[in-house]
Design brief:
Shape of chain A: globular
Distance between the termini of chain B: 88 Å
Largest sheet of chain B: 2 strands, antiparallel
Number of helices of chain B: 10
Distance between the termini of chain A: 12 Å
Strand order of the largest sheet of chain B: 1-4
Largest interface: A-B, 19 and 17 residues
Helix content of chain A: over 70%
Radius of gyration of chain A: 18 Å
Structural class of chain A: mainly alpha
Strand content of chain B: 5-15%
Shape of chain B: elongated
Oligomer: heterodimer
Radius of gyration of chain B: 27 Å
Mean pLDDT of chain B: 85
Order of helices and strands of chain B: HHHHEHHEEHEEHHEEHE
Largest sheet of chain A: none
Structural class of chain B: alpha+beta
Chain lengths: 197, 266
């Protein structure tokens, strides 16, 4: 894929809406349901995921194309990506704690949660499967995470409203959240027509 | 190269490199944490109630260590926490004034007139939004127990349509004070036994019309007080706890018994 404005915009719509990580790929559902009680924390989580997914796409691209592929070890991608992501998150956390305390206070508590987030691992594998080059890999990571951010913030907004609504006893808590997630997923199917691939 | 050997070497090598980088980073980015921080954090009550004005015990402990906050702000911890904190900070323990939450309303069922029978959701916040609330007094306790639900110390209950606080259990954390939509609950010094328990700011005649125990701003308490401690402000008697000597003169002269003296039965 060459880098043109129309390609870029299509790619963005594709990542954020059509192939939304939560609603159409069902990746990253754990933080999506776990950290979506308040819009504020949901946004914090979403931004932290954006940050990590962008970086993870960059580093796993380098590891895959410059270490694994030349040595013919491409079957080791999943396990080595886990290693890369876990170390990366740890490193970023330490770095942020020291040099960006404000950012650390805002995102710090979410960083360890992201280490094993399947959306992060998912995006790196998808980058490889789709044969994206470095630029598109990073863009895929960032835009995919923005889709995650959109989804989790929308969900948190709905769940805040749920607090004050009269829900049948059986559906209170987790069941109604899952039903809402399902309904939102159906709604996002409406964007399927916008997709290019 | 043997593919198994290559796999082992690559993964092992990557693990080793990342491990080294992380070890280096943890040295390079190490943050020297004040050891007093964890000590101060342990000294606090750990209720995360926010009574000190900081978001949670961690934030307050940090503020104390930095010297930004006084050490006597943790009300749930009381004297014990204060002494522990003063040990940590090396400062002299000041006496904190023990406080307690008091209900400034005596509008029990039958005492205050009802505007309508309320059958909606049983929370004060919703009830006060319905044509000014079910009781005729717009300043009184609604009695649906929003405060009871936020109390973490099981110190509150609803009796006869009004909230009653168990002063032995109350830690003056102030959660109920924040929750009450009518600001009926106030934190007052525990030793202030005399309390003017009405906040009805309506004209005296209107106040009397809706509640048998309303302050009618007759100012008899003002005249009876020898210490200039009680004044009628906004049609309501207000006691200055610094001047009040708990003599109880105002309690005796109050015609509607809106001023009340706590009697301990020990």
């Amino acid at each position: 894929m060459t880098f043109t404005l129309s390609n870029f915009l299509l790619f963005m719509v594709n990542c954020i809406l059509t192939n939304n990580f939560i609603f159409s790929r069902y990746l990253g559902c754990c933080p999506f349901l776990g950290v979506s009680n308040k819009v504020e924390t949901a946004a914090g989580m979403g931004i932290a995921v954006t940050f990590v997914m962008g970086l993870a796409s960059l580093f796993t691209y380098v590891v895959y194309h410059y270490i694994l592929l030349p040595l013919g070890l491409s079957y080791l991608d999943t396990i080595s990506f886990i290693l890369v992501i876990a170390s990366l998150v740890q490193f970023v956390e330490m770095f942020m704690k020291k040099s960006m305390p404000a950012l650390y206070n805002a995102l710090g508590i979410y960083l360890p949660l992201i280490t094993t987030n399947c959306a992060v691992l998912g995006v790196t594998i998808l980058n490889i499967d789709n044969n994206y080059n470095l630029l598109w890999s990073v863009l895929n990571g960032v835009f995919g995470a923005l889709g995650f951010l959109l989804a989790i913030v929308l969900m948190a907004g709905v769940r805040e409203r749920l607090e004050s609504s009269n829900i049948p006893e059986t559906f209170k808590g987790f069941p109604i959240s899952l039903i809402i997630a399902g309904l939102m997923s159906v709604a996002f199917l409406g964007f399927a027509g916008l997709g290019v691939n | 190269m043997n593919p198994i050997l290559a796999a082992v070497l690559v993964l092992g090598g990557m693990g080793a490199i990342f491990g080294l980088v992380l070890t280096f980073a943890s040295k390079k980015f190490a943050i020297i944490e004040d050891e007093r921080l964890s000590l101060a954090r342990e000294a606090l009550a750990g209720a995360n109630c926010g009574a000190c004005g900081y978001p949670g015990c961690d934030a307050y402990a940090e503020a104390v260590i930095k010297g930004e906050a006084e050490i006597n702000l943790c009300t749930p911890g009381g004297q014990k926490t204060l002494e522990a904190l003063s040990d940590v900070m090396g400062a002299k323990a000041e006496q904190t004034e023990a406080k307690v939450a008091r209900v400034l309303c005596q509008g029990e069922t039958g005492v205050v007139k009802q505007r309508y029978v309320y059958n909606g959701p049983q929370t004060c916040h919703i009830a006060v939004g319905m044509a000014g609330g079910p009781s005729m007094c717009a300043w009184g306790c609604v009695g649906l127990g929003d405060c009871v639900r936020v109390c973490r110390y099981d110190a509150m209950k609803i009796e006869n349509g009004i909230v009653v606080i168990d002063e032995d259990k109350c830690t003056a954390c102030g959660m109920c004070v924040k929750e009450c939509p009518r600001s009926v609950i106030k934190l007052l010094p525990k030793k202030a036994l005399v309390a003017a328990r009405c906040q009805n700011a309506a004209a005296p005649r209107d106040a009397r019309a809706v509640c048998d125990k309303a302050c009618i701003a007759c100012k008899r308490c003002e005249k009876a007080c020898q210490f200039d401690a009680i004044h009628v402000i906004n049609n309501c008697a207000v006691i200055d706890p610094l001047k009040c000597t708990q003599c109880g003169e105002c309690v005796n002269v109050c015609p509607t018994k809106c001023i009340d003296q706590v009697v301990y039965t020990e």
